[in-house]
Please model this.
Amino acid sequence: MSGRYEAGGPPAQPPATELVEVALTEPLDRVAVAELGAVLDRVLGLRPARLVIDLAGCGHVDAAGIALLLDAHRRMWSFGGRLVLRSPSPRLRRLFQVARVDQVLYVVPAQPVPGDACGVADPGTVVGSRAESHG
Model:
């Protein structure tokens, strides 16, 4: 067996869309999970290579919100994509650390890491929990 992990890995199928961004403007709690879940279902149907969820406008995430983010991560991984959580407040970063989801989810600060295109939007951007599409 080679040193690479091969069994159960994501398929090698190319992504249908390079980047989609979703900016949360409300707390991600039990009430908002159903609405955001519907948005994410549509977005994940695009099979983006990268899904960036901007948390700059999100003041709170509860257990249901964390479960939704973990599910989105799992679904992205299943087709070879990557979920990125961008711009969480210090409070949210601490919550992710305590819940240990920072061990699974890719969390970046407000400024993208040099060489990382996560800060670049494209026409597939989705803004707000009301899913206003800009294109």
